[in-house]
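Exercise 7 asks you to align residues with tokens for two separate proteins.
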Amino acid sequence: VQLQASGGGLVQTGDSLRLSCGVFGRSFKYYNMGWFRQGPGKEREFVATISRSGENVLYAESVKGRFTISRDSAKNTVYLQMNNVKPEDTAVYSCAASLGTLPIVVAEREYDYWGRGTQVTVSS
């Protein structure tokens, strides 16, 4: 299984950006998906997760109301729509896939596959 994230870039405060993560290999429908980020000098942190069915989602408090996670089974892709971005959103964003049985997966250790990240830089 391979995950490939894309869509990062340099944006200004208040802008919008959509990240994509393609899943290649085993069927996309088996995975709960998540987004994590690692800011400069910081530990990697949970951003959002979505269940296999797409019915269950969870967000970190810092992004709730601004970011939206979604998935498209026809395209084997999970998205992270980022609205009203702030300088503190600057980070490398990575997607991850979990084969776990729980619909909501927050802990990094519960994810089985990781993609290389995409850089998001928000200027003030």
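Second protein for Exercise 7:
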Amino acid sequence: QVQLVESGGGSVQTGGSLRLSCAASGYTYRRYCMGWFRQAPGKEREGVAAIYTGGVNTYYSDSVKGRFTISQDNAKNTLYLQMNSLKPEDTAMYYCAASSTPCSPRLVATYNSWGQGTQVTVSS
């Protein structure tokens, strides 16, 4: 099992930027998918972005495509999410997740390790 710790959340105004980080520790030998999910109050957790197949492929939800960028630093065992042009509808708790088995990058159920989350609030 891998341990994941997110950081970098905060409060920004519309149009602002934040960079989320997710530090991984523990058994990090093989991770099929690494992803970012978010959950707003009263809504289901949704996939935002993921990186998979050894970092070759990325996935972005339509709502963040062109504004968010996922990346990873394998030497630091850290996953990042650069969020630009933030909108109020991006307000949510953001979670980092990892899968040690073959996965579908945007499906919650295929991830087996989760961080505690970091809050992102975007005001208009």
